[in-house]
Amino acid sequence: MQRYAMLFGAYMSILWICKFIFFFLPALQGPNDVLFLLFMMATLFVPFLGYYYAKRYRDLSCEGVISFASAWLFTAFMYVCAALLTSIVHYVYFRYFDQGYVIGQLRAIIDAIPTEEVPLAASYMETMDNNIDMLETLTPFDIMITMLVQNIYYGVWLSLFTALFVMRREKRLR
């Protein structure tokens, strides 16, 4: 199980790295709707690819039979491996290339929201502004760890649903 989870996790990380590039490439060359569309399509493709890899593991290694717990453990470990490999790219990007782009984009979004029309929006925007100030204090390593934990968290939850579809009991002869 470990071998297949690491192998398929490495393949999954290639998709995640491409997603990351599609999302942050505009930082280097300007806004691009096509890249954002590719990012969204790749994001929606992740659970299907996870299902495909879990099904391949079930069929190749488990002779077509896998319990829910084994399927969940395999897919969770696969997502952990993918998150670990992807976190290397996250660190390199935020350490050497970002130069404040993400924070600048967040500030631009906050500034574009009209707060005069909605009374509660002003206090919400102030809270968001304080959160962005806090984000500016994070180091590239802090950001990488945060994204790693987030990817693992969502991967573990996603693996629960994947395991439901992948599990297959052995057929009993009567």
Explain what this protein looks like in three dimensions.
By secondary structure, the protein is mainly alpha-helical. Helices cover 82% and strands 0% of the residues. The protein has helices at residues 2-24, 26-29, 33-61, 68-97, 101-112, 119-135, 140-166. Helix 3 packs across helix 7. 21% of the residues are buried. The model has no long low-confidence stretch (mean pLDDT 87).
Brief synopsis:
The protein has 174 residues and is an all-alpha fold.
Alpha plus pi helix count:
7
The unreliable regions are none
Strand content: under 5%
Determine Rg (CA atoms, Å). 20 Å
Summarize the main sheet: none
Structural class of the helix and strand makeup? Answer: mainly alpha
How does the overall form come out from the CA principal axes? Answer: elongated
Counting DSSP E segments of at least 2 residues, the number of strands comes to: 0
Average pLDDT value? 87
Count of individual domains: 1
Helix content: over 70%
Would you list the SSEs in sequence order as H and E? HHHHHHH
